[in-house]
Write a structure and sequence with these properties.
Elements (H helix, E strand, L loop, with lengths): L1 H5 L8 H12 L6 H7 L2 H14 L8 E5 L5 E5 L2 H21 L13 H15 L8 E6 L3 H4 L2 H15 L5 H13 L7 E2 L29 H10 L1 H10 L4 E5 L2 E6 L2 H19 L9 E3 L1
Parallel strand pairs: 1-4
Antiparallel strand pairs: 1-2, 3-6, 3-7, 5-6
Helix pairs in contact: 2-4, 2-5, 5-9, 5-10, 8-9
Length: 295
Amino acid sequence: MNEWILEEHDTSIKLEDVFLAYYNCRKNKRNKIECLEFDLDYESNLIKLWEEIDEGDYRVSPLSVFIVEKPVKREIFASDFRDRIVHHLIVMKLENAFEKEFIYDSYSCRKGKGTHFGINRIERFIRKCSRNYKDDCYVLKLDISGYFMSINKLTLFNRLEVFINAKYDYCDKESLIKLCKKVIDTNPIDNCKIKSPFNKWEDLPKSKSLFHSKENCGLPIGNYTNQIFANFYLSEFDHFIKSELKIKYYGRYVDDFILLSTDKEELLNIIPKIRKFLKKKLDLELHPKKYIYKT
């Protein structure tokens, strides 16, 4: 293996990073058939993958698509195992920079956070906002219509490129940007392998399927990078809520977000501001029927 390491370029993604991404990727998946097949000759497979990345020849393999019924019905696009290694590589490289970008109360796909953490934080917000239930506290819950299917990939990549250039300080920056572009630019429906019967799509709303997304829009649910990219896509919105609208009690999990205030009118009056920001900056729409207001 040393002969390949000696051929690395100073600005390239390192072979050892590809190996580390592989080890991260295979955790809890060692009995999956695609992982077992890759493992049969994993060193050669990883070196070949690294060479493709290094030479700019890496291409995303066709994805598999299927419908899951629980916890809710949704369309899942699954990547080939070697592509999942690339996803882990990208996240591994950018995770620390993303952590510095995200507000504290963004809960999705972050170490030490998640749904239970978010629920506990909202409970704490309610206690603080109401002064231990002595005052009225108003809660506004909103979400985004067809979020993953509506993410504009051109906007996402442009923001990501600016972010990496500004916040990522390692010599493989350009290689990482090119790799991100290839992952984001991939059209998941091209040559995809359909694993569920066609009738499974009949009662799935078009807003929840990439087969009906607008041009250059939509990220597949299920890819590791896309969970992180979806969080990053709304980070600008998080800062808008906190810094410009000055909402003290706010939390977001993926595209579901909650705002709290002792002032009912304050919450109602910011809905148009939120709607305007999402449309203008991110080409997103608030769900017209899924907002909840509680006291």
